[in-house]
Write a structure and sequence with these properties.
Helix content is 46%, strand content 16%. By secondary structure, it is of the alpha/beta class. The radius of gyration is 14 Å and the shape is globular. The structure holds D-ribose (RB5).
């Protein structure tokens, strides 16, 4: 059993890829909370970004993954929450670097943009890569200060 707790969410446009990536993570031994959506009916990505961020800020998960059509709407919505550093990624380099340099805690991507194989590679790097700290800690501290200045 992997020790990181993961929470996932999607809208209708990200549902299919979310379920496939969720199965991939469960096969790796992760416990995955799924905040929805659970049906293909059209819905607003904001609802599920909000639900996922509430799980994160309650301390019930360590990392989050949000899927919509592009990943962009999810990342905009998630970044409105204090303590959330959401990164919309379309390649493995960004998914790895956003953990190392930004200590990103939510990965967003789009089912209409990337395929299952790339999504799994990005997610694996995201969950396996630690924050580098060092000079990057001061920048993450600045991001946290921006949260407080709202
Ligand atoms: C839904 O059509 C689409 O707008 C949404 O999934 C997302 O891509 C928004 O950023």
């Amino acid at each position: 059993m992997e020790n990181k707790r993961i929470v996932m969410g999607s809208d209708h446009a990200g549902l299919s890829l979310k379920l496939k990536v969720k199965a991939h993570l469960e096969a790796r031994g992760f416990a995955v909370i799924d905040v929805g959506t659970h049906t293909p009916e059209s819905c607003n990505y904001t609802v599920y970004a909000d639900a996922l961020c509430k799980v994160m800020t309650a301390g019930e998960a360590d990392l989050g993954i949000l899927v919509c059509g592009t990943g962009v709407g999810m990342s905009i919505a998630a970044n409105k929450h204090k303590g959330i550093r959401a990164a919309c990624c379309e390649n493995t380099f960004s998914a790895r670097m956003t953990r190392m340099h930004n200590d990103a805690n939510v990965l967003c991507f789009g089912e209409r943009v990337i395929g299952y194989g790339l999504a799994c590679d990005m997610v694996d790097l995201f969950v396996d890569t630690p924050f580098e700290g060092g000079r990057h800690q001061a920048r993450v501290d600045d991001l946290n200060a921006l949260d407080e200045s709202k």
